[in-house]
Structures are given as structure tokens and as C-alpha cells.
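User
New here, help please:
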Amino acid sequence: MPELVRLPIVHVLLATYNGERFLSRQWHSIAAQQGVRVVLHVGDDGSTDRTLEILRALAAEATGAIAQVHWLQAPPRRSAARNFLVLLADAVQRCPDAAWFAFCDQDDVWLPGKLQAAVAVLAPYEHDARPALYGGRTVAVDEEDREAGLSPLFERPPTFRNAMAQSIMGGNTMVLNRATARLLTDGPLPEVVSHDWWTYQLVSGAGGFVHYDRQAFVRYRQHGNNAVGSNLGWRARMLRLRRLLRGDYREWNWLHVKAMADRAAALTADSREVLQAFARAREALLPWQRAVWLRRSGVFRQKPGEQLMLWLACLLRRM
């Protein structure tokens, strides 16, 4: 059997919306991946620019690692998170033998070895019923491809207690085994603000394997149309503080806590206790009661400054 046939196949989920400016570079960086074959699943969310025209032209000349392209035929989802989850559910159903899945943003650039490194880490979980998730750091770049620096390095292990308060790995870095894909898509798809945060929460909460790679394999493009921006620099910190004070994080947490509660049967007993304590920390009437329940939950953010922000959010009832 030729060596090419034995290469692992990764099902890459490309969600697009008005992505004409950078789409071609991302597509070619996927095609340039080595050591894997790629089945590309494309879902557009109602683009009004030349995105669909560019996609058709790229698909017609698919080369390199891209072995096949599937098109999701569905009404617009109107959010990146919903688009990715619908794409994943379709891929799981369409390809019953698929082992690996990867989320893919339209405007990034993947570095050589991205998928190969992820599959190597997750290989022991290829046929395992235990969910497994790979993700890691990124290199932030601007619209002209100038580097702004690496995303923060998180030193503490990835756990459910951390996942309840933050996502430490972007969806554009994530690769999942089939057990994770099934876990995310079994039952009604939740309304969540972030598919990557939801993935980290659910996999860690279910006792799955989570690997955080210190090496960056994605050039994460920052521009005015990003659904979620970089967390580098004082501007990003000020933006997070403003979001906290106006209640954005409380709304986001409400959606994710509800989604986790709806999937409580998939969680470990310890994770259910953490979830319950965190929910009580959000809803208790008095500040000291909220602080007691947050401490009891053990929920934390990775960096000291962000942990202080979590306590502030708790005391102000903005968590």
C-alpha cells in the first residue's frame, strides 16, 4: 500500500464569513501541511463579498494535503460558534470513520507541522472512548502579517476548574479525537459565545485528556473584523476590564453554565460539584457569600492579575 494512503486523515472545519482578504493564504497553508491528508469541510455563514467565489476556485484546484472538499448546505448560522458546531455535527454524521477533527479560522496562517504535531500527541486516543483535545499558543500578526508576539504562556495544567473561568487555547489551534466530536455534538447544539471555550470546558469536565502545546503553530491574524481578538498588551487588558464592568462576562458565563448544566450527565462527579459551586458563586445575593462559593469551587484563571479580575467580578456580581 502506498505510504500516502496510510497518512492520518484530519477533517478540517473551515468556517467562513466575508473572508475574501485572507482566505487564499489560509487555504494554501492547509494544503502545505505535511504528514497528514486533509478532508476540508467548508461552511459559509452568508457572505456578501467574494468569499464563495474564491472558495469555489480554490476547491477546483485543490492540491497538496487537501484530498477532498465537502460543502455544508445549511442556512446561515449568524455566529462563528454556531457555524463551527454545525460544521462539526455535519462532519461527524457524514464521515462515520473520521478519527480527527480540527477547527479552522478563515484568516489565519497555519505553520508547517501543525496537524502532524497534534495527531502525534493525540495518537493514543484515536480509537479511545475518552475525549482528547489538543491546543496551544499562537503568534499574533496584523493585517500586513507583521508579528505582534506570542500569546501568553500558561503554566498551570489545563483543568475544568480553569476552564470554567477562561479558555487557554484558541479554536484555531484545536484538534479533537472522535470521542470529543461526539461529546460536543450529541444532543441539541448549545447556544454558547465561544466554541473553543465550550470545547475546553466540556472535555475537561468529562475527565478527558487535554494537551496544551507551548509551541505555536498558528499565525493568528488581528484585524477589525475578528470575532475574538488577541489577549496581548495593555489595550487587551483594558478591553477585558470594560467588558467585565458592563456585564459581558456575566452574560457569557450564564450561557456556558447553562450549557454545562444541560450536559451534566457527561461530567464527572467532581466537575458537577465545581459547576454547582460556581453557579452559586454567581447567584448568591451578598458579596461575602459569592466569595465563599467561588473559593469553594476552586475556579481560577491562569495569571495572578486575571485571578484578581475574577475576584473583582465575583464581588461586583459581574461573574
